[in-house]
Each structure stands twice: as C-alpha cells, then as structure tokens.
Design brief:
The protein is α+β, with helices and mostly antiparallel strands. The protein folds into two domains: 30-324, YVTN repeat-like/Quinoprotein amine dehydrogenase (Methylamine Dehydrogenase, Chain H), CATH 2.130.10.10; 350-447, Cytochrome Bc1 Complex, Chain D, domain 2 (Orthogonal Bundle), CATH 1.10.760. Helices cover 16% and strands 38% of the residues. The protein has six helices and 28 strands. It has helices spanning 2-30, 350-358, 395-398, 406-415, 417-420, 434-447, and strands spanning 32-35, 41-46, 52-57, 61-66, 71-77, 83-88, 94-99, 103-108, 122-126, 131-136, 142-147, 151-156, 161-167, 173-178, 184-189, 193-198, 204-210, 215-221, 226-231, 235-239, 246-251, 257-263, 268-273, 277-282, 287-293, 299-305, 310-315, 319-324. The strands form seven sheets. The protein has a four-stranded antiparallel β-sheet with strand order 1-28-27-26. Strands 2-3-4-5 form a four-stranded antiparallel β-sheet, with no helix packed on it. β27 and β28 (319-324) form a beta hairpin. The longest helix has 29 residues, at 2-30.
Length: 449
Amino acid sequence: MRLSKIYQNKIKIIFIVLISFFLLNQSVSAIEQYTAHGGPVKGLAVSSDNKLMASASFDYSVVIWDLNPIKEKLTLIGHDAAVNTVKFSPDNSRLVSGGDDNQVLLWPLDKISKNNEEIEPIRLGNHRGKVADLDFSKDGKFLITASWDGTVGVWDLSQRKKIMSLRGHKGPVYSAKYSEDNKHIYSSGSDGEIKLWKAESGEYVRPLIKNGWGISKFEIDEKENFIAYGATDGQIQISEFTKDKLILKIKEDRVPILSMYYLKKENMISFGNAKGRMIILDTKNWSLVRDFNAVNGPIWDNILFPKDSSLIVAGLDDFLTRWEIFDFPPKFLERPGPARRFNPAIEVSNGEKQFARKCSVCHTLVKNGKKRAGPTLYKVFGREAGTLKGYKYSNALIKSDIIWNEETINRLFDEGPDKVTPGTKMPIQRMKKIKDRNDLVLFLKEATK
C-alpha cells in the first residue's frame, strides 16, 4: 500500500509538469506580433464590419490593416507629427485622425478597394493643442475632437469645418464621445470631470463625475446604466449612470490608465495601464475576466475582437501584440522587459547612448532603414538638409541652407530644432552637456559612413 501511494504521487507530479509545460507552450504560440510602423503605436480603431483596422503611430503615419487574417494594407501619410488617435465613420467610408501637430485629417476610404492607391487627406482644420481623441455621431454627420487646448471641437462633416468649441474643462481634454441618440456629448479631462453637453447647441449641462485625478478614458452606457472610467492615478471605477452609486473600484497607485475598449454585445470592457497591465471585466456582473501583463511598457490603446476572443494592444514597440484572451496561463513577461533601441541593456559608448535616447525613435543609421518619423541618417555628414529622396520634408527644412556637419549637428542639440530649424517637424529637444553633444557627433560621424 505504501509503495502504491508513492507511485501515485509520482504519477501526479509528472502529470502536473506535463500539463504545465503544454499550457505554457500553448500561451507562447498564442502571442503574435504585427509590424508596419517605424515608431511606437499610439492609437487603434476597427471598422464596424470588422474587416479593417487602423493604427496611429509616433512615426507620423496611419496604417490600414486587413483583418481575418491580419495583414498590412495601406499606409496613410499626412500628419506633421505623431498621430495619437484614429476612428472609422459608422458606414466605414471615411477615417479621421488627430495628432501632435494639432491637425484633424479626414481620409476617404473609397480608393482602398481600387488597387490601394495613395490617399490624399482632407484637412478639416486644427486645434491649438494636440488632438487626443475623436468620435463620430452615430449618423456620421458630425465629428467631435478632444484636445489638449482645453476644448472639444464639433465639426460639421458636410461643411468640412468646425462649427463649435465646447469650453469648460480646466486643462487638457483627454476623451470625448457622443451619446447613443446623438443628443448629448460627453467629455473628460485632466480636471477629473466627465462633463455632459447638449450636442445641438453646445450648452454645458452638468458634471456626471467629479474625481480627484484626471480621467483619461471613459465609457457610458445609458441603457445598461453605467459609467466606467480610468484615471491618471490608476483608478478604475464603475458607477451607475442614473444615480451616484458606486458599483466597483479597482486601484493601482500612480499607474495611469491609458486605454479602454467596450465590446457592447459581448458584455466586456478592457483597461490598459502605463505598465502594460490589462484588466478585462464582464459588464453584466462586473466580474473579472482577465488580469495580466500584456506588454512591457504603456498600453496606449487596445481592441477586443469578439469573433476569435482575442485582444490587440498598442504601445511602446513598433509592432502590435495579439493575445488569445482565454488561452491561459499567459507567457511570463520579464521586468523591466527586453532592451529597446532607445533603452539599450548592454553597455555602450556615451555617444551611442545619446543616439539611442535622443534620435533612434525617429531615425535609423542604415541605407535602407525602415520607416520612421524622420529620414535615415545614413551618409548625413555633408548632406544638404531637406534633400534626401523618398522622405516628405517640411517646407521650412527644404528652404533652409543648412549643411549637416559636426558644427550644425552640435548646434541643433545645443540651441534646439525650434531655433536652428524653425518650422520643421523635428521634436524640440536639447542636450545641455557639451560632452554629450560632442560624443553624439563623434558616434554619428562613424556610424553613418
């Protein structure tokens, strides 16, 4: 009897090990990555027919993807800075995008089916601060934009112009949405409020939520009677819409919630935070569906797909990451995560370190470097600014008489792009230390040969 118990225990241990090994290997194969951008991905959108997806990136571009299977279809070029947010119109005939260049661009999608021709955007107009969020009215006739200039823009798409600016938030507006009946507009911002406005007149009605910290993302479902939001202090809160009654609160101190996605018919809502944590809830009973680390770094946007129960997240990497929601346990992600080009893990020279931190998100060093926000720096020394073929330069740089050399590159990071190349698309950044600038120049001179 004693021997049989020992034997049984050994069998159990072997069985558990084999099952664990199988599950872990299954979870590894469940993770897929899709690359098309040359910089971090900041926004995602999916068409209402689930045939197309759009991604907005730090590399100034929007990529249109085929779904089922996921495959890059077309790249849209038009913004002069990082693109933060994208949205398909309800009938999927148009796409709108907003970015750090303060611009709102409308993309007609009828040419996508015609040999994927290059699409020229319609420039609707701009804000006085970067555009953080977008939403179409349910009939597709109007558009609202949330901006860091503290306003919500209301656009008449038939006239292709802004017809109102809703003013009332104290500080940047992070998110804006139409109500299901198009009669109201909701907005949230750094002041910690979700505000209610009349859509037709722009009249401010009242605050729906007053929170101590900024509200980065929210969802409102009047029929299901809830307001769900994520805050900059890491709080997730669910309250009743009709009265001030708390349903659920989840909090992770000082880790901002950056993204949300509401899958209405499937009763699921997802939250992504600044450290790569994904939380998925069932909106019927507000139970926890999943809580895991999806990526290393911030989750700027996420989308839930009902057909195959999958999740796509966008963040600090150039690629999109796809997870099977119910294929668990998840792969264990090492912290602080893999080395990135802008944060090398191995010991490198000071010049290479400065390039990684200041330049590598926008520029490569090789002849056929993949698409980034800026042109490749291959053979940059002796090159006239704004002359590399294949890159869309700003008029300011094209008209400049700068020749890139040790002196001009050093001055660029000493005085800043806004002084050396005013009017260009290059982000404003400086290096205070002379040694850092000199080391960067020496590294670039050797690495770009």
